[in-house]
Amino acid sequence: MGDLERNILGYAQSKGLVTGVGDDMFRIGPVKFFTDGSAGAGTAWFSIPYENDASNYGVRCLTQEQTDELTLAAHRAGYQIAPHAIGDAAISMVLNAYEKAYAELPDPDRRHRIEHCGWHVPEDLARMKAMKVIPAGQPTFLYYFGEGYYTIFGSERPQHCYPFKTWLEEGLHPSASTDCPVTSPDPMPCLYAMVARKSDTGKPLGTPQALSVAEALHLYTYEAAYGVHDEERKGRLIPGQLADIAVFDTDFFSVEPEAFLTAKCLITVLGGEVVYRADMA
Ligand SMILES: [Zn+2]
């Protein structure tokens, strides 16, 4: 945790706990700190006010200077950084900090991320691309919170949330995840939201950003591994990679996305060993 008030970065570093240390089952990941709140709660920090409250721009957790300082300290210490940023103003602030950190200490494959990365201004797409910053978005937010986005943002802004298709086409290596425990760890609403771009109430959320089933699985497997520098070891069904495999009772490629939501896992293989079988559960 790299937040200003609860920063354990120096302590962790003094114990040798830097990004990448560990083994296949438990490993030190990136440094996270909060720059804003959440869209659903009306606290994600935007450059324009919320539709339902013209005085509300969300909650800004850090100044630019504080963000620069936290970022530079973690960057210098060799950590991957994954700050929480959802609103466009928070995302721009993080990118400003990354530009300064990379200017001081270039490291082209560090793969700093932006955790969530809900709404960004178009110009920030080019900045993410230039610095190879990974948008680590949560399709589950569309599913569970999409209806609420309409309440606080009206009908237009929800269409521009989490542009997974654009990120993928631009080569940003977007990953998909659930943000558990914020939402259920069930991967099915996540897959559903990437392909259907709908909330659990059926509200569409930027349908042009819908992914194919193959693309959605790619984000959830290869790109998720890429986001933690692990794409050479896991994320694909090829010789030499860890055999972490789940077999489902549903062919995702031949059904409507609604059927993903009721798919059941039949077999789970972990590192080549069968660790779960539905018929033996
Ligand atoms: Zn977060």
Please, could you describe this protein's structure?
It is a single chain. The protein has helices at residues 9-14, 64-76, 88-104, 122-131, 139-153, 164-169, 187-196, 213-220, 222-226, and strands at residues 84-85, 113-116, 134-137, 175-176, 245-248, 265-270, 273-277. It has 281 residues and is of the alpha/beta class. It has one domain: Metal-dependent hydrolases (TIM Barrel, Alpha-Beta Barrel), CATH 3.20.20.140. The strands form 2 sheets. It has a 4-stranded parallel β-sheet with strand order 1-2-3-4. A 3-stranded antiparallel β-sheet has the order 5-6-7, with no helix packed on it. The chain is globular and about 55 Å long. The relative contact order is 0.10. Bound molecules: zinc ion (ZN). Zinc ion (ZN) binds at residues 84, 115-116.
And the CATH topology? Answer: TIM Barrel
Name the CATH homologous superfamily: Metal-dependent hydrolases
Q: Give a count of the beta strands, DSSP E runs of length 2 or more.
A: 7
Assembly state (oligomeric):
single chain
- Name the helicity range: 25-40%
CA(first)-CA(last) distance = 37 Å
Keywords:
TIM Barrel, binds zinc ion, 281 residues, single chain, 10% strand, 32% helix, alpha/beta, three-stranded antiparallel β-sheet
Topology of this structure?
Blueprint: H1 9-14, H2 64-76, E1 84-85, H3 88-104, E2 113-116, H4 122-131, E3 134-137, H5 139-153, H6 164-169, E4 175-176, H7 187-196, H8 213-220, H9 222-226, E5 245-248, E6 265-270, E7 273-277
Parallel strand pairs: 1-2, 2-3, 3-4
Antiparallel strand pairs: 5-6, 6-7
Zinc ion (ZN) binds at residues 84, 115-116.
